[in-house]
Structure formats: structure tokens, C-alpha cells
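Instructor's aside before we start: the two examples that follow are unrelated to each other. I chose them only because their records fit on one page, so don't look for a connection. First example below.
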Amino acid sequence: MTLDDTAPRIHAIYAVAGDCDLFEVSLRSIYDQVDGITVITGYDRDWSGTERTSASTIARILSRELDPEGRIQVLIDRETNEARTRNRAMEFAAPSRKARRVRQQSDHDSMMRPPDYFLIIDADEVYEAGAIERLREYVRAYPRRRYRIAGIRYFKRWNWRVTGTEYSISLLRSDIRLPYLRRLCVPVVRRGAARIPWMPRRLRSIALGYTDIPADVVCFHHGSYVGPRARILEKLASFGHADEVPADWMARIWDGFDPSMRNFNPAYPTVYASCEEVSLGALPPEIRDHSWPAGYLDR
């Protein structure tokens, strides 16, 4: 947690549907770096109504196993839309002034300090030590409404890294909400204006509606398609783009995966153009030193 009262306060928002193994590593990677955490989940269903349990995750949080300091807020939600679920969690974590303006109830009661920014994080995203502090300093220097953060992507095992990075909206000013998942639809004219070479950084951010944080400042490790076969099948069953995934993708690509393969993303093949092997020593300790179940990391 930040010790500097002038630094932006960052509160993490998790919308969880399963992925207990990955969530533990993700949570531990940010727990001591953020000012608060809210976890929202459908508990036994995902947003499409498909059975997908988060019971063990919630039990471990409530037992203090994953939350020794008791700083995590847990919400059970029956929403049918992922973006709306996150927005509701943000409303809970940063309520209106009228909701916060109450009389002190006891000597133990303290005034609520709402966050300045929300870190939108998925259960399969891992940050390295010091990453959130660098993020905090960047935001203090370049205050904006929305930021995108680069994700380093992995496929099948943490040992295989997809070439290049992919940016997602991951940091929002606390009064901003998400209209759709972690992307924005930017009109063509505004995208074109943002490409003008002499366009000042602030005007470029206004045109696009977001600011890209340089990958050398902060990035996260994204295990979206990492893990045993059962996890990937479960993921695809509730995937927002499930109708765009070829019926034979699991058998043809996942089961027959070869590092020489090209264009192997299930819905948008060219997004995963190629991959490279990552040695154990090149992985961050948050991933390398964890005791993973079978199917996540080849040692």
C-alpha cells in the first residue's frame, strides 16, 4: 500500500468467474501494491448463465488465507453482462458523496477515502513487484481519464510467450465507467487525428479517449490461454466470442500445438501470430516461484 498521501490511490477491481489457480497468483502479485481490492463474482454461474464456480476462491478470501489483512470487499452478483458487473463493483468501491456522508458511529469508525483510480484486472493477469508503484508515478505525472496497459501474452504454458504485446484498458479514473469490456470504440476520424505526427500527447489522448502507458513503465503477464485442457474448455464455453471460434480449434490447435504454428488465437487468429520459448529464469518470480498444478508450467 502507498505511504505517500499525495500519491494517487489505486483500487483493484476483479470480476471473477472460476480460475481459482490463476486468481491466487494474480492477487498475491498486487495485494501489497494497491490501496484496496473489490472482488465481484456470480459465484456459481458466469455472465452467460453457464455453470462456473468461484466457491473455493471466495472461501479462501473469507478465511483470510488470501486476505490476511482483511482488505478485500467481496460481492456476489447475478449480472448477465461483464462490463456492467465491473461497473457495479466500482459503484460499490467509490459510492456517491451522499452515501459516504454519515455521522461517526464509534471511535473505531473512520472516514471513507474513495480511490482516485481503478485498476481493472482479470484473474489471469500477473503484475511484477514494483509495477503498480511505477504506474502510480506515471499517473501522477500524466493524469488522464483512461489508460491502456500492455499485456505480455502466454499460450498453453507459461513457457510459451506470444510475440508482441496487446493493450487493454486497465486503469480508469474513479468516476469513469466501462461501456464494453476493456475496449473503446473510437471513431475513424478521431483515430486518424491521433496519428498526426506533431499531435501533442494530451490531444492524442483526448482524440482516442485513452492513454497508452509505455511498456517499459509497466506491463502485466497475461495467462489467458495458459493451463490444463479443462480450463481452456471452460473458458471457451463462456467466451464472449464463442460463436467465432472454429469447432475444431481445440483438437487442431490446442491439442496439436507446435511452437512453429502461426496465427493460433481461437477467435482472431492473427492476434497470436507466433510465439517463443521462455526459459524458467526469464519468468518473473511471481510466476516462476509459485507451486502450480499440472498443466501451467513445465520446469
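Example two begins here.
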Amino acid sequence: MPRLFIVTVLFFALGCSGPSGSPPDASAAGPDASAGLDAAIPPDASAGLDAAMPPDADLEYDAGPVCTSQADCGDPVNDLVANVCVGAHCRTPGPLVSIEFVSSYGTSLTQAGSQPRVQLTRLILGKHLDGTSVTCADLAQRSGATQATRSLLDKDPQINQAYRGLTALTWTGTPQGQVSFRIFGDVPRGDGNVLYAEAWYGQRDQNDPTGDRAAVSCTEGADLLAAPDGARFVVAFGP
């Protein structure tokens, strides 16, 4: 499946200066960031901190080829939105909705020498192929934290990744306190799934991160079944 579009990204830093923006990767901070971040996250954002996913069990899909894992259906690394293996058949997730991830980095990750260089954002179906639930604890066991083990989730035969986006992060100035990046993308609708994001210290290598993993953000029960275009979902890294 061809890639849809990567991301157009802005970056807001609380208490730092020097605005600039550089699509398609995340960059640029601004002195009015505290106001911008408040504007980016609506007052009822706590109700919307869940996030997207396909496909919901109640939706109807035409049966595709027989499969035993997602590898029989698509390539989650090279396809921004990949076909999934559900009910022993390959299926196309969707329909798509345009959303915004507001990725918040705590002070432990914003200081010089501690800043991640890429963010890997995944939307994972809430059930393994054997029907058991996917949880944040489960993903922590299955994923890798080094460059040598970075592909463990991508190759896991029990996991379906309907969305996988890699975004380069550009830091400017000397941030003071929390920093947020705004990442836009088209993702498949669905509910009851897992939003799983990783920050990595190394630069991007095509569609993979490099170096060691810096931090993880995980939200179970992500729900984007009825979210409107432009909905915002928080991805929080570190204190």
C-alpha cells in the first residue's frame, strides 16, 4: 500500500524562544508557547487522551487472503497504514481520519544531551491474533530498547500495527521545562486499541530509529471511532 502522508509538524516549548517550522519533521519553538499549547489542547482534553485505531470488531470487512500474521498482509514498517490480519484473513483498516498527536516531553528529556531525535508512533490493534488482549505491560515485554532490538514489535507474529509513523524531532534554542511537538497524520478509525509511542536518541534510518530508546508512552483503550477530523490526542513522555 502506498504511504499516505507523513507529517507536518510544529513545535511548542514552554519558556523557550526562537520560532521556526520545517515540514515534514517536527521542529521550532516559540515564546508564546504556553498560550499555543493551551490552544492546542481543548478544555475537555482529558476526555480525549485516548487515541486512534482500526479495525473495530463490529465493523464489516470483506475477507481478504488467508493469513497467520500481519507479515502475510502488509509491511507496517514501510506502509504508514498497513493491512492487518484479523479473523485469519487480511483486511484493510479504515476509514481514515485526520488527527493531531500532541507529544509532550518532560524536563528530563528536554535538556542538552538528553533530547531524543526521533519519535516512533504506533497504533496497535487491541487483540493479539490469538484473541487475548494487548496491554502496555505486554508491549513492554515484546518491544526492544536498543538499535539491535528495535524491530521486535514490527516482526512480532501476534501483533497487528495499523499505523506506524516515524518523525524526526528538531530542537532549537535552550528549552526550559516541558516541550511539545505537534504531529499530524491520517489514521484508521477504531476503538479499544493501544497508542504506543517511543522516543529514540539516534537519527532516523529510513523508516527505523537508531541509537537507544529514550522513553515510552502507552495508552490502552484508545478510541477514535467517532472522533472528528482535527481531533487532538496527547502522547506524554517523561516527568
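The mean pLDDT is 79.
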